[in-house]
Amino acid sequence: MVAPGKWPIIGEREPAALDKPWNLKLLGQVKNEIELSLDQLSNFPQTSFTIDIHCVTRWSKFDVTFSGVLLRDLLETALPTEDAKFASFIARSTRDHSTTMEIQPAITCNTLIATHVEGQPLETAHGGPIRSVVPDRYFYKSVKWLDRIELLAKDRLGFWEAESGYHNSADPWQEQRYMAAGIDRRLSIQLIAKRDFSNHDLRSIDCSDRELNHLSAHSASLRDAKFNRTQLIGADFSNANLSNAHFVRANLRNADFTNADVEGADFSGADLRGVDFSGSSLIGSSFFQPAESNSVSGQPIAAIIDSSTTLPDEIISPLFPAQLEYVKRQLLTG
Questions:
Q1: What is the pLDDT of residue 294?
Q2: pTM, whole model, 2 decimals?
Q3: Which of 64, 85, 137, 214 could be cross-linked to 234 through a Cys-Cys bond (beta carbons 3.0 to 4.6 Å apart)?
Q4: Could you tell me where the beta strands, DSSP code E, fall in the chain?
Q5: Which domains does the chain have, with CATH numbers?
């Protein structure tokens, strides 16, 4: 907890092009692109609430009252398209800071486009004249000097998530600071830069939506790891423990899973062409989700398997019947 009246300044002190007039833009997957001056923003319904600020660097500031416009009210004017699934909050900063959230959770947790704090206009050093404020998330999800909000069909990692390995969900109550709870920021950066997870214990690591082609994860402990939609072409997972790992819609072409423990792993929608599963344990693994299990599109999610996928009979025989039937059919016809 910080001292009363204190609010630490994290990162840069001022935005890029400070002398440029400030207009907030909402664009991307919307029916009506909008651009609002500060005066126009003030004409929207104004909302105030009091929250606790939790910084990923382990300080908190309690009972801070922010005022501004709810994201929900802006979206009612912009009208998201059916393809809009994520909102990217982008700063006018020299390093192009941004962060992305799923739209529905962002609305549910009352994301605020804030212009005031404690009844006063936001100071520049704290993100004025406009910043996003996301309750119940670490404060790196609340972007200073908000310049635009872009609605996206697919997730796009923000600055801190991509550059420093910060967790994409950022729930402080679950201490979701980094990709994996057991590693610090410096090690996160090193692992991403080297693309080398070999022999590390990275249980429950969240690497979704990253570009990690040719990742080396030999003999790593990656139980319950999340690699959903991640680019993993040519990755080496040999001898790794990947029980209950998540590879939904991941690109795993030519990846190596030889002698790996992938029991309970989910490969639904993953590209598995050229993947070698020789010697691996696939008990309870999934390769497709039926339509009724997909609450988003109502369509089945099926892995791409063909004759180049190495899945020997003795490896797939313990699969559940429906999964086994699907895999055998793909190996014969793919």
A1: 46
A2: 0.67
A3: 214
A4: 23-28, 34-37, 47-54, 60-70, 86-91, 98-102, 112-117, 120-121, 131-133, 146-152, 288-289, 301-302
A5: 23-160 (3.90.420.10), 196-334 (2.160.20.80)
